Amino acid sequence: MSQSTDTAKPYPFVNATVCVVVFVGGALGTGLRYAMSFLPVIGSQDAHGVGSFHLGTFLVNMIASCCYAGLVTYLAQAPWIHAKRRELISRGFGMGVCGGLSTLSALALEVFTSSQGNNVLGGMVYLILTFAGGFIVALLGVRMGNWLVDHRNNPELSASSTSDEPQGAQR
Q1: How far is residue 156's CA from residue 148's CA, in Å, rounded to a whole number?
Q2: Is there a contact between 94 and 71 (Cβ–Cβ < 8 Å)?
Q3: Chain mean pLDDT for the chain
Q4: pLDDT mean over 100-123
Q5: Are 26 and 102 in contact (CB under 8 A)?
Q6: How far apart are CA 171 and CA 169, in angstroms?
Q7: How is 17-64 classified by DSSP, letter by letter?
Q8: Per-residue confidence (pLDDT) for residue 128, from 0 to 100
């Protein structure tokens, strides 16, 4: 067997700049998630304060799903942004901020503790609403990303959408 002389890096997209951007974005997203953890728990609570609907976790997951879907949609259609800049934006805001903001582990813990507190139905409703809501707001994010691209590429759309005259009206 002959040895390969290929000197390609195993992860060609990983460099110090990307790592710093992801780290800073992740720190911001995690800080925002922590701040949202102080929102009240909705629903019945047991003696330990374990409830069924954790508003903070739900909201951060919805915000992250919508923003990440919109960001990916926009950047995928943005050739006017240099490729390296698009990568840094995607890694910093997408992987960093949205990744640090969203949380599957807290969701799993909250559903588990709800079921341990004899609130299985509340935990299941919370889980289903989170996944269904995440899908719906991701679709909304895609629509917003497409809207931004359309309005960036066609400024007349912005001008016509703000006029009082209905489109296609004749004088």
Answers
A1: 13
A2: yes
A3: 83
A4: 84
A5: no
A6: 7
A7: HHHHHHHHHHHHHHHHHHHHTTSPEES---TT---SEEHHHHHHHHHH
A8: 92
pTM for this model (two decimals) = 0.78
Calculate Rg over the CA atoms of the chain: 22
Average pLDDT estimate for 81-105? 92
Judge whether 113 and 50 are in contact, CB under 8 Å.
yes
Q: How far is CA 66 from CA 26, 40, 117, 160, in A?
A: 17, 22, 31, 26
Question: What value does the mean pLDDT take over residues 139-160?
Answer: 86
The pair of structure tokens assigned to 127 is: 């889980």
- 9-20 pLDDT, tens digit each: 666 667 889 999
SS3 content of the chain, % helix, strand, coil (to 5): 70, 0, 30
Q: How far apart are CA 13 and CA 5, in angstroms?
A: 20
Q: Dig out the tokens for 153 from the structure.
A: 């590429």
Select from 57, 47, 43, 38 the least CA-distant residue to 117.
47
